[in-house]
């Protein structure tokens, strides 16, 4: 989010749309790959909707072509998009992966989370009366 704000202040909106489009399609492909892996590794789990594997495999073929074409035609935009994605790696390690954090780091991540929830209006009432009461 911070990287996007900096790019919006420095660059133009068209470039930001290109960055986000590349990131978006990259995530779509990774999601479809995850679907195929789960169908292969855990075939017995419940699936409310089950499609023929030919559909995601065909989608992945077109996705790979478009992604390779994007990387070839606009490598700088794709590179910046990958850098934007990679800015989330330290946040993941700080907030999720690192289990035995000092209390000051826990307090920092909790306050940043609370601040972000208040900013985006996604905070549930804490300790007050519930709707059922």
Automatic annotation (TrEMBL):
Gene3D superfamilies: Amino acid/polyamine transporter I. The keyword Translocase does not apply. GO terms for molecular function: L-amino acid transmembrane transporter activity; neutral L-amino acid transmembrane transporter activity. The keyword Repeat does not apply. The chain crosses the membrane at residues 16-39, 51-73, 79-98. PANTHER family: AMINO ACID TRANSPORTER (PTHR11785), ASC-TYPE AMINO ACID TRANSPORTER 1 (PTHR11785:SF73). This is AAA1 protein. It comes from Chauna torquata.
């Amino acid at each position: 989010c911070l990287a996007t704000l900096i790019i919006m202040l420095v660059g133009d909106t068209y470039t930001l749309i290109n960055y986000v489009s590349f990131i978006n399609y990259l995530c779509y492909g990774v999601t479809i790959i995850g679907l195929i892996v789960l169908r292969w590794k855990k075939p017995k789990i419940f699936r409310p909707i089950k499609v023929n594997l030919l559909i995601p495999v065909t989608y992945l073929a077109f996705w790979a072509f478009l992604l390779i074409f994007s990387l070839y035609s606009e490598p700088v935009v794709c590179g910046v998009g990958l850098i934007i994605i990679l800015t989330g790696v330290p946040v993941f390690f700080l907030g999720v992966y690192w289990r035995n954090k000092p209390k000051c780091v826990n307090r920092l991540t909790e306050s940043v989370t609370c601040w972000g929830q208040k900013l985006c209006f996604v905070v549930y009432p804490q300790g007050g009366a519930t709707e059922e009461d």
